[in-house]
Design goal:
The chain has 117 residues and is an alpha+beta fold. Helices cover 18% and strands 43% of the residues. It has one domain: Immunoglobulin-like (Sandwich), CATH 2.60.40.1880. The protein contains 2 helices and 8 strands, in the order ββββββαββα. The protein has a 4-stranded antiparallel beta sheet. It is globular and about 40 Å long.
Length: 117
């Protein structure tokens, strides 16, 4: 739970790879996700993809995807990113929500420039 008593459903971070040939888009979901099903993501009504969970710790479970030029460009041209995962607390129901990319696209654009060097 965060300071306001609300449950955090996702933490998203982006890390540029040392060789500057791409980046890692890392997702942190709450404990209790169904690991074999992975994390689903869909960029503005494009084909849905899955990212496997890598590990869990006391903060939650981590999944990640490599952001190459093609995927980064797709994010830059998109309005939203839809995330989904199954959680046992909700009777294995699908947790699905969209993230409006808005201001994040400014950072992604800067990142694309840095990666493209």
């Amino acid at each position: 739970m965060n300071n306001e008593g609300k449950t955090q459903i996702l933490t998203l971070s982006i890390e540029i790879l040392k060789n500057e040939q791409g980046a890692i888009l890392r997702f942190l979901t709450p404990l209790g996700v169904l690991l074999p099903l992975g994390l689903g993501f869909e960029i503005s009504d494009q084909k849905s993809s899955k990212a496997p969970y890598i590990y869990c710790d006391t903060k939650g479970c981590y999944s990640q995807i490599i952001l190459g030029q093609e995927l980064l460009q797709s994010l830059l041209l998109s309005k939203s990113l839809t995330i989904s995962y199954n959680h046992i607390k909700n009777n294995n129901d699908l947790v699905r929500f969209s993230i409006e990319l808005g201001d994040l696209k400014i950072k992604l654009s800067d990142m694309a420039t840095q990666i493209g060097r």
